[in-house]
Amino acid sequence: MTANSILNVWDHCVGKNQTFKGVALASLALNATDHSNIVDWSIEKRDIALFHVRKKLFGNQFDNISHCPKCNQMVEWDFNFEQVGIPSLYDIPDNIEILIDSHDDILMIRLPNSDDLFTNDASQIIRNCMINLKDLQSQTFHQNIPDDIINQINDKFDTICQASNITYHLNCVECSHEWQVNFDIVAYLWKEIDHWAKSLLDEIYVLAKTFGWSESDIINMSENRRNHYLNLLNS
């Protein structure tokens, strides 16, 4: 990952939705410009890739801030990369198939991928993930998926998708209210990259205005060299 490649991904993602950002940011793990394969990855594999991108760019520690839903008190919480047990990206298949016994039929389900999430409809996402829908004997599934089956599928998703389903139990020291928060690696990493990119562009502006260097010349400098020139201007 170079400064230029990260900046290009940031530029490509500004104004896009979270699903688009998740795919583009995951491409940094492969140094890839073609996102078509990543769109077909399960959300779990995509999020594992995002954790590895984040570790390489910003380190192991994840510091978070939440606000108590009862009294709005700020609560700080954190974890590190090792605590959540993120596996190697190359140990994870592009997708995983799950068998669900519905008594009348055996359903074959795959994990949702980014293409599914563009649908933004929970029931349609599950239907998209049913690999053998056309082969099922029961006509029920061709109309409405029973709630108990949806619950079974969601439970399986939650169990398998550890990187995509990280929750923390928080306790407010002010009012003793307890609640759970979900950690969203896409939103977290995007916020950090957005801040990094804007800071870098600010530095480029100062150096280009002062020395007349091009953007590409400044981006291709090492961080140490850029910082040295900026320190000279501030001395």
From TrEMBL:
* Pfam families, per the entry: T4_baseplate (PF12322)
Q: Which domain of life is it from?
A: Bacteria
Which InterPro entries does the record match to this protein?
Baseplate_phage_T4-like (IPR024364)
What is the name of the protein in this document? Phage baseplate protein
